[in-house]
Amino acid sequence: MASRTFTLLGCAVLLMTASGCPGTATGKVALRSDGTPGPEECPEEARKAMKYLRLFVGDSAWVQLDANQSRAYPITLYAGPIESVLEDNLGPLDAPARLYGRVWADGPQAVIRYYAAQPLDGGDQVPICAVARLGLGQLRKLPESKPGTAVLGSPRAGVYIVNEFR
């Protein structure tokens, strides 16, 4: 199984390299009036890599939201880049693989979009499209959140593969 995963990830890296994918969001995201990010397409390179890796829309796992605040309570997220840690395997991405993305913290809740995954084997990042979610409004910011930050009641969330950001 490990050799199959290594082969799949290696091929995805070749696919990504051949297509020139930078592994992060390539453009500015328009913001809505409440400060949350607007719709954004999943780049073609990420869709190809996810298809090859057999990561399908709705596939999910648990993630520690901030690698630097593992299991902290409450957790403070800052607007900008984020590194998260998978707690469960996500398709061929074995925990504790890293996910890289961006946090928006100006709206009523934190919005986290992931654009790349770092496999455990230390290979190149693989482009993905995924979001962090928790039910019942649990990514809603706590009242002590300051501008540009999101204080959350949980250090964990579900991460879900998507084919576009809404």
| Largest sheet geometry | 6 strands, antiparallel, barrel
Estimate the global geometry from the Cα principal axes: globular
CATH topology: Lipocalin
Q: Within the largest sheet, what's the order of strands?
A: 2-4-5-6-7-9
Question: Mind telling me the C-alpha Rg?
Answer: 15 Å
Beginning-to-end CA distance, first to last residue: 35 Å
Work out the helicity level.
Answer: 10-25%
Protein name: Serine/threonine protein kinase
Topology, pairings included?
Elements: H1 2-19, E1 40-41, H2 44-53, E2 60-64, E3 75-78, E4 80-86, E5 98-104, E6 111-118, E7 126-133, E8 149-152, E9 156-161, E10 164-165
Antiparallel strand pairs: 1-10, 2-4, 2-9, 3-8, 4-5, 5-6, 6-7, 7-9
Helix pairs in contact: 1-2
Structural overview:
This protein is an alpha+beta fold and 166 residues long. The chain has one domain (40-165): Lipocalin (Beta Barrel), CATH 2.40.128. Helix content is 17%, strand content 32%. It has helices at residues 2-19, 44-53, and strands at residues 40-41, 60-64, 75-78, 80-86, 98-104, 111-118, 126-133, 149-152, 156-161, 164-165. A 6-stranded antiparallel beta barrel has the order 2-4-5-6-7-9. A two-stranded antiparallel ribbon has the order 1-10. Strand 5 (98-104) and strand 6 (111-118) form a beta hairpin. Helix 1 runs antiparallel to helix 2 (44-53). The termini are far apart.
